[in-house]
């Protein structure tokens, strides 16, 4: 007879007893787990919780600004860190997906370490670890940009010498969502599609550049906005656009174009381990395709991914 309100109450008391008046640092990602952990800790210890939200330049369009704003509305003591250039310059020239993941994870650790250093006397590192993270590795393709999967990147960064507090570590995903609802988080975090830690970095096939990120952000926004407008967003488990570094011929007025391709992916799934491609209505796909081709400079062709997992994965990299 587990109830979310009882969990919230006892966990707040536990956190207060454990952490006392110490300062705690936590990395927010915009995802469900870290957000619920943050709001819970905030209720327990207020501004002794220091949240850090890193802009890796690989988030969805306007996501950094809007999520940061909403966290602030929740009263969180949060610092946004613009590290776009750092990530992009480290990714320059790199094409291999696993290499890109490693770089994104490493740069994240560096930025987070530097930032947590700036907080005087911080004693604890809070993480949104949930039960399935402990019993199995959730990421199927390699380490995600979470802290826990990078324990062995050489000498430990300083923040890793902190004591760890993980208030959600006994919970399954649906319980985390229920706790989030009890905390009043449904409006902005709980209904969002899963989004990988390396973000658009693994939705640009091959080398990531600022120009490709901008193109993909625009196309992805048109796609997601249209899904919402058509009332389909909540029926889809995960959706996103992918930038293909393939050029094909098109015509625009009297001119021949030779530009890149955007692939659209939308899947139904329970846990991401298997997935079926969504049978999105043709009129919706037609509208999205027209809008992307007409509005996004550099794209003259849109394709829809009709592969299920297995054998295809949800992400293309
Ligand atoms: P795949 O592509 O393996 O993805 O079918 C399954 C789910 O995992 C997400 N994913 C990741 N999440 N770091 C993450 O945090 C990663 O490196 C990563 N790779 C895939 C993917 O978005 C999907 O929800």
Could you give the topology of this structure?
Layout: H1 4-19, E1 23-28, H2 32-45, E2 49-55, H3 63-73, E3 78-82, H4 84-91, H5 97-117, E4 122-126, H6 131-135, E5 163-165, H7 173-182, H8 186-190, H9 210-229, E6 238-252, E7 255-268, E8 276-277, H10 282-295, E9 299-304
Parallel strand pairs: 1-2, 1-4, 2-3, 4-5, 7-9
Antiparallel strand pairs: 6-7, 7-8
Bound molecules: xanthosine-5'-monophosphate.
Subunit structure: Homodimer.
Function: Catalyzes the synthesis of GMP from XMP.
Domain GMPS ATP-PPase: 2-192
Describe the structure.
With 317 residues, the chain is α/β, with parallel strands linked by helices. The chain has two domains: 4-190, Rossmann fold; 203-304, 2-Layer Sandwich (GMP Synthetase, Chain A, domain 3). It is built from ten helices and nine strands. The chain has helices at residues 4-19, 32-45, 63-73, 84-91, 97-117, 131-135, 173-182, 186-190, 210-229, 282-295, and strands at 23-28, 49-55, 78-82, 122-126, 163-165, 238-252, 255-268, 276-277, 299-304. The strands form two sheets. The protein has a five-stranded parallel beta sheet, with helices on both faces. Mean pLDDT is 92; it is low at 138-153. It binds xanthosine-5'-monophosphate. Residues 101, 139-142, 144, 194, 196-198, 238, 272, 309, 313-315 line the site of xanthosine-5'-monophosphate.
